[in-house]
């Protein structure tokens, strides 16, 4: 992986999230706040409710580093559901670094509506080259964004560089399970315009090599299956209404692509969960 592949992946992510089809789909089916995998307590729970639960669970892991006077960096912040939760619930400052200006505009407007724009700064840029000095943040946070990286080694090293001593890195990501053959997930990767997924053992190895302590992976891979079943059900159920916000071709592509994610989860090929590590003093 190189700087060049990282730049290509960043451009691909920017294009992907900037298209009106993708924007319309995430806003309508995911709820337009939290666009990551949910943690479901029942198989029919609304996607938005389960996705918010993931934010709460990740926040619990780093709660002692949150609060007024603390600063969090959210890498790949989407529409800002997690940033508003963190700022609103804990009173911390949040810097939201995200490559998609289309999402950032919506993020800033929603922060104003929520009265949280004083605590959240939305910055357009790539997490491959974080525009902040070393040791600047108490917590570095990310959800389902590292899957878009073209150089995850560089990305993790950047994330750790900007962490303050004793600062916490917490992230969720969609991954290939460790035993998945490299070419088994091609159609899924293509929908997200990404080249490959990380694996849990890659992240665990890299976090340890970067010198983090308390490294932990809360493996919730079974939740990915429920999540993709729910996304498929909702896309089917709301197909008529979705035709007003996304093109017929994109809707058809989703209806054939989402069941492949369900099947990949059923075969144990995808993995998902919450990673946590702490920078030494
Ligand atoms: C699935 S969305 C998750 C958004 C948000 N974290 C959430 O959970 O609601 C992935 C996000 O990663 C962002 N992203 C992808 N590549 C990026 C990069 N190189 N630098 C910054 N953000 C990036 C996208 O713009 C998008 O907002």
Structure in words:
With about 280 residues, this protein is an alpha/beta fold. It has one domain (about 5-280): 3-Layer(aba) Sandwich (Rossmann fold), CATH 3.40.50. Helix content is about 45%, strand content about 20%. The chain contains eleven helices and seven strands. The chain has helices at about 5-20, 20-30, 45-60, 80-90, 100-115, 150-160, 185-190, 200-210, 220-235, 240, 250-265; strands at about 70-75, 95-100, 120-125, 135-145, 165-175, 215-220, 270-280. It has a seven-stranded mixed sheet, sandwiched between helices. α5 links the parallel β2 (about 95-100) and β3 (about 120-125). α3 packs across α4 and α9 packs antiparallel against α11. The longest helix is centred in the C-terminal third of the chain and has 19 residues, at about 250-265. The radius of gyration is 18 Å and the shape is globular. The two termini are about 30 Å apart. The structure holds S-adenosylmethionine (SAM). The site of S-adenosylmethionine has 23 residues, from α1, α4 and β2.
């Amino acid at each position: 992986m190189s700087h060049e592949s990282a730049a290509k992946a960043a451009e691909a992510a920017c294009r992907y999230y900037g298209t009106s089809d993708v924007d319309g789909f995430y806003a309508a089916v995911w709820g337009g706040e939290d666009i990551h995998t949910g943690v479901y307590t029942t198989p029919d729970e609304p996607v938005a409710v389960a996705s918010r639960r993931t934010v709460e669970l990740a926040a619990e892991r780093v709660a002692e580093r949150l609060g007024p006077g603390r600063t969090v960096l959210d890498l790949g912040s989407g529409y800002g559901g997690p940033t508003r939760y963190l700022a609103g619930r804990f009173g911390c400052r949040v810097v939201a670094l995200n490559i998609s200006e289309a999402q950032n505009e919506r993020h800033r407007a929603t922060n104003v509506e929520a009265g949280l724009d004083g605590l959240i700064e939305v910055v357009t840029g790539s997490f491959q080259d974080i525009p902040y000095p070393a040791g600047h943040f108490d917590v570095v946070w990310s959800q389902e964004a590292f899957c878009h990286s073209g150089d995850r080694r560089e990305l993790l090293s950047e994330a750790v560089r900007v962490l303050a001593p004793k600062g916490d890195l917490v992230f969720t990501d969609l991954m290939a399970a460790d035993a998945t053959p490299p070419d088994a997930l091609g159609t899924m990767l293509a929908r997200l315009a990404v080249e490959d997924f990380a694996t849990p053992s890659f992240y665990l190895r890299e976090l340890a090599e970067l010198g983090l302590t308390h490294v932990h992976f809360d493996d919730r891979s079974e939740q990915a299956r429920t999540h993709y079943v729910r996304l498929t059900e909702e896309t089917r159920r709301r197909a008529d209404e979705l035709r007003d916000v996304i093109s017929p071709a994109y809707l058809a592509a989703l209806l054939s692509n989402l069941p492949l994610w369900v099947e990949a989860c059923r075969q144990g090929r995808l993995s998902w969960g919450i990673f946590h590590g702490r920078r030494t003093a």
